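Exam review. A common question shows you a sequence with its structure tokens and asks you to describe the fold in words. Practice with the pair below. Do the first one on your own.
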Amino acid sequence: MRPSFWIMAFAGVSTASAAAAQPAPIIVTGHGLPSSIGDSAYDLKIITRERLTGSASDRLEDVLRDAAGFHQFRRSDSRSAHPTSQGASLRGLGGNASSRALVLLDGVPVADPFGGWIDWPSLDPRRLGYVRVTRGGGAGPFGSGALAGTIELASAARGELPLLSGGIAYGSRDSLIADAALAGDVGAGYVTISGRFDRGDGFIPVVEESRGSADRPADYRQWSTRARAVVPVGDDTELQASAGAFGDDRERGVASTDNSTRGADASLRLLGRGSWAWEALAYLQSREFSSRFASVSDDRSTANLVLDQHNVPATGYGAKLELRPPVGDSTEIRMGLDYRESVGRTNELYFFVGGLPTRARRAGGRNVTIGGFVEGSHALADRLVLTGGARIDRWQIKNGGIREWTLATGDSLRGESFADRSHWEPTGRAAIAWQPASALTLRAAGYFSYRLPTLNELYRPFRVGADTTVANAALRPERLAGVEAGVEFQPLSTVRLGATLFWNQLDNAIANVTLDDDPEGSLRQRQNLDAIRARGLEIDASFSHGPWSFAASYAYADSRVRASGAALALDGLRPAQTPRHQGSATIGWLGEGGLTASVTGRYVSSQFEDDVNVRRLDDALTFDAALAVPLAAGISVEARAENLADRRVEAGISGAGLIERATPRTLWLAIRYTGS
């Protein structure tokens, strides 16, 4: 990484340490500004720290499935899936490698600046205090990315972190997880430093009956580290400075299919908690990605390199300013500005002959969004909450271009600069919550939101086996309109039941449209469909009594494509990689002395691999289990099991009918230390 990046990353930490040496009259929280009055009018799901640190897989993308409706392009997790297939989405809006939900860590967008997918190995769930999932389009800060909803990750506060903690886990297929964290007080503030390392020999992705001698386990090696300082810099002002880095190396189960990601992030957030509450935020992302793709022979005895994306550098940066003027205890106004920019390019070698490339390609561009937002909420007599907000964005897609040339001679094969584009984009949302009785809340909401196509969708082609998908520099932004109505019933503090009906229409939906579906390999292109219409139901329930707890979530999504013109054949079909039913349920038990046990069941119904609804992935019901037994002061052992019944979870089907699976049964034994 560049030296200037690290200077920016740690300058805030140095400033914070100096400030912390002064006497401070306040205690810092480490979190952002308080939740809005109007939040009760939207469909919210909270995932607690106890759940984040108690899952069988110890992976954030797995825990997020507790909020039914959350899904990625593939059913595989970040140990075996290709990184570019791991965008986050909600509410059955169709399979897409880019995120249709906005994911924030302490207020900072975390999606990859080039592709919009989420680098899950960089997000250790043990560093988090809670996760808040808001289903439905957003219009607040960075709202241009909140097409299907917002997933807010909050770092653990000092009171949730011991001075020293760590653990080591050994699992199936020579897998290893090692993590450690240090948290210490500095004056009235605190500093945390954490690190994690994962590795595994992996499993063979292709199902047993289809394997050949070319198939082998898909190994992985991942690491991440993060430092964070939170200190007061005045009577009612708090500074939060964070910096982190990560590495992610995976293979896809045959030779010449390795991929690698290196990343670093830094952010500064200044919070004012006086009568005029305010927040100022700035962040920087740096990414370097590479990926190779192979063609495998019909008998799966050999694999030959066909595409080498040897360098895909990208940078993302942005800033936000938010103000909350004092307007009374029952009224709240939020207003502000935000800015986001992503720049990147793909550098590729292709058209291999005798194992050597004969052609090269370079393509990329820049996306810029600057916006302003205002949102107001008002509570009437503790029974009625009204909220509404609007934002206006000016987006730009610019400096786009592609060049292809012959390596031997340097002769140009293609040289094209794409016209710059820009537009004003208004969005908004409004909601109402009414509490006719103390245990009952009725709510309704409507919203408009949008998403720019990513640099990856505009400029980068890719392969999955023999199937090729080409980019499209003419893609238009996606635009969503939606409404929802829900009910919350909470007769006791330990009992909650919520249900939400929703209807969404995603215009200009970006999808991989099949141009040629040949058994030897399909050809697809990213295109804008007329629309995807999704209507459905979400149910969340939780209950606790004594040492027992129960939490469940279910989502039903009836999603259909609306298409015309060249994509007319897709009209009325289900979007690719979109299940109709998703469900999750966890039963937990907390015994004396810290003994804990839990069992989680998850169900996903069948879904189609492709847009033409020919390749069907079977449904899957899996069970996970976790047990933690304290041995001595601060020391415990854990036994965990993923996919306990070893159910085959189909993750993909190629044009030749080749089935790829997700994680098989994986057993873990761990020892952990938690200091005082």
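Now try the second one, then compare your answer with the model answer below.
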Amino acid sequence: MATGSASIACPDGARADDYSELLDILKAKGSLTQGEYKGLLTHHMQHVREATAASRPQYVPAQRHMATPTSTHAQVRTAMGHDVQPPGQIEIGGGGMDPDYVLAQAQQAAANAQASAASAESTWLATQHSMGLGGGDSFVRMAKYEPGKGLTFKAGPININLSGFINGFYTYNSPAGGMPVAGGVSTGASGFDSSALRNGLLPAGLILKLSTTQNGIDLAAVMGMYPGIDNAKNGAFNANTGGSPVGLGTAGIDFRQVYVTAGNKKWGTFKIGRDLGIFGGDAILDDATLLSVGSTGSNSAPGNTSLGRIGVGYVYADWIPQISYQSPTIKGFQGTIGILQPLDEFDFSGSDPNGTAYSAGSTQHSSPMIQGKITYDFKIGGLSARIWASFLTQHQQNLTVSRTMTVHTALLEANGGIYDMATTTTTDDAVNPGQKRGVTAEAGEIGTKLTYGPAQFVGYYYRGSGLGTTGLFFDGVANNGHKRASEGYYVQMMYNFTKKFKLVGSYGVSNLYLAPGETNPDLVRRNESEVGAAYYKMTDWLNLVAEYAHTSSAAHGPYKESDNSASGGMILLF
């Protein structure tokens, strides 16, 4: 080895520079504040200086001298250009030095470099743990924001996601006249124009999702709260019963989502809790009126939501307690099967002039509702497509019919006048006196969604027996105990003229047929609507909406009614 004087940059300085680059990466990602960055860097450099000074050899050979630091290694610059002082220099003696001593110095420098590397690694692992990067749970940080996917926070291995939407519309509804139709969704027979500030088919929504992976199992817990902006009215449909536009009222809160999932991509996923039903789920999620108003349902006293295309193209899937299993996707195919809370047959259409309900009801269920679905997703060139088909079945037991009777009693008053005292009683009688009767409701559906460039098409069809119309099992069974058949469909076209502006047009129909042996001219035969809407995306969050809808209802007899509505507003999604 050469025995002349030299100045060698310490390997410790290189390791310190490597460590500083790690800190630079953390700072650039926002994981470290400026103060934390400087503190960690200063602490580590001081540690390296002390370790180097403590391990420096004390032997001083004759005629040695110290080389003057040069600009080439007087400072070390980090990857982001920050200047840091190296921990020191190694002094190499001059003439007459023993070569073994120089070798000992080089070995000592190598040992110092190894110690510095171990120190850097230890500090880096400690930093990871304290920030939750290595599985620690003492530091919460925010993941990179992606439009449309909510806000995600990470607490160690747990992802906390908040997403939601808020909308509001001004809707003007003008009835075109007609006579009331039992079970119809048009407001044409009301006779009065109406104005409302209201929600659309969606209320507002705030969804919390917690997710993590434990022992190879992907776990998630979801809670979705959906409040409206109008006053709520108590009734059979709770927050969806209708509005109550009077002072001192309060909005309704629909806590429709409460469920957990467990599974993985290899074995599929189980779900238990309250969520959107399997049958009819795709029909409403692909409906463009989900982001607007559609058919108003009731505009003079708006509730949490409008109808959109519910009852005029499909039956509402509803939010139902369930235990379901969704398979992994295999070559584009995926299956879902579940047992769900059974729902009652419901007389939605009301009663005839004699007080007898048009439809039977039921409250007894010895078995759950069963729903299943299969989907197939594929691409051909520039065409993206989904085809789905699903079914529903449920046994309805102990069918009854509601009868309301009013008895008038003439009472003689003291002054000689006559007072008419009316007494009203309502009874639920078996549809077949003396017998308990039940039926099995069943339904099937098929649909497709095709996307090609800026254009999109949705086509959907359903048919059921005992299913009813508008809502699940609404008017599905006649008051004689026999099932009514029903069917419906809708078609929808969407075209994106730019990345921000699109037009949508759709047409849909829902039909309800009379049961065997039934004569009921007042009952709805057909609900239909045409909807046209324009959407303008101002930002990633904010969308402006303008819409026109025409809705009509026709009975099995001569009665029919129709109405027109125009809506304008906005929906914000985050």
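Model answer, second protein: The mean pLDDT is 84. The first helix runs from residue 11 to 28. Full marks require stating both points clearly.
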